[in-house]
Amino acid sequence: MAQTSSALKQTPLNSVHRQMGARMVDFGGWDMPVQYSGIVDEHHAVRRNAGIFDVSHMGEIIIRGPQAFDLVNYLTPTLVSKLKNGQAQYSALLYEHGGFVDDILVHKVNDTEYFLCVNASNQDKDYAHILEHKGIFDAEVDFASERYALLATQGPRAIETLSKLTTADLNAVKYYHFIDGEIAGIPARLARTGYTGEAGFETYVAPDQAEKLWKAILEAGQEFGLKPAGLGARNTLRLEAAMALYGHEITASINPFEAGLTRIVKFEKEDFVGRAKLLEIQEKGVTRLLTGFEMTERGIGRDGYEVFLDGNPAGWVTSGGPSPTLNKNIGLCYVPVSHSQPGRLIQIMIRNQPVDAVTRPVPFYKRAN
Amino acid sequence: MYPEQYRYTKEHEWIDVQGETGTMGITHHAQNELGDIVYVDLPKIGAAIEQGKSLGSVESVKAVSDIYSPVTGEVVEINEALSTAPEKLNLDPHGEAWLVKVKLTKPEELSDLMSAADYQSYIGA
């Protein structure tokens, strides 16, 4: 059993999680709740009703100034110009060689302010990367992580839950849009985004308001079956939705084409970091592709396990585990392009035994509406 | 919670010895730490197992854990029910969800194991 190290970083809700009996783990240097009632129970709560996650470890970086757009546009491969005020976009920070520094969400507040939500364990690296490429752009890079707590409320009853706490019309906020308003009397940025494959909001508030909001949401959601959920369920949920996790599906040595994220690379826009190399990669074509799989024999293909084709190592599992919704053992893996179409037989090496699996289309789960 | 007549390992297995046969499993503490158990991999009947060596594994939603044998011996029975209902390990790890029965070849090894009281103080219960 892991000891809690005093060096671990904490979110403003740390003591609340402990009081509520959450099991805490070291997650990339953060002392985070992995589960409350149990991963499967929390997973089903989010798919069927709603769940609330403390994801305050996520980082926030604000780009401000006359050339805020130009800087963000240069740092990312997506069409930042398409964003309207109050709209968000899934994007990335890339190295010149085309690999991922991080995957990020870009929120356009207005023409001179962009709010980036970045991964917890990458935030320092992201900040340094942004400064390194800031050059002569007339913009300020504000490392704002310590000024925000982030609560994700997700599931078919999430919006109903949150609507009890705000006068804002949350149903009118479209997917990947956000508003600045008030919830439970707390000033908040309410973004209709998430990492579970369900409807819901991610709510950015001041750290000293996090506990008040957490408790208000728990209480408001009680009648709908909302439960507190940990990072364990967050992972099984995002895996079913086939959403990438940095360090697994995407890394510094993986480019967007390999990761099935061709849609975030827009060569028609102005120059951006990584563009030249990505053009080259696109012309040459990639040799491996991220692919879904499902175990067809007993066994669970987990992160890091090797994928074998015809008895030879040919790839690796990036994420894998049981899918509580589908009641199957699923995963994502890199395989040669020749085996990336659904329906190919592959083998996962599980403790030195090859175990049969078949490639599957992703996402594994898509909500009905 | 932790039966008096069982003996326990630091890796959170238990063994209940009757004559020359021992029934073994994982402890309540182990199942609680693992969380939702979804898969159990057990040795075959007749397999030789060795004290302190892995005899199989238990997987929860989030991780795989080896099961270490408390004693040396030969597997004489396995709990087949766990292959279709691994979640029983979360519900009754000291009873219905035993893992394997083993014929002990080095019964003196039992003195290496902890009593229920020692185990509980070991896990801080």
Task: Explain what this protein looks like in three dimensions.
The complex is a heterodimer of chains A (369) and B (125). Chain A is 20% helix and 34% strand. Chain A is α+β, with helices and mostly antiparallel strands and 369 residues long. The longest helix of chain A has 12 residues, at 123-134. The radius of gyration of chain A is 21 Å and the shape is globular. Chain B is α+β, with helices and mostly antiparallel strands and 125 residues long. Chain B has 4 helices and 9 strands, in the order βββαβββββααβα. Chain B has helices at 28-34, 81-84, 88-91, 116-122, and strands at residues 7-8, 13-18, 21-26, 37-41, 48-49, 54-60, 64-68, 73-78, 100-104. The longest helix of chain B has 7 residues, at 28-34. Chains A and B meet through helix 2 and helix 7 of A and strand 4 and strand 6 of B.
Short description:
The complex is a heterodimer of chains A (369) and B (125). Chain A has 369 residues and is an alpha+beta fold.
Please name the defining characteristics of this protein.
A: about 375 residues, alpha+beta, Gyrase A, domain 2, Alpha-Beta Plaits, Elongation Factor Tu (Ef-tu), domain 3, six-stranded antiparallel beta barrel, 8 helices, globular, B: about 120 residues, OB fold (Dihydrolipoamide Acetyltransferase, E2P)
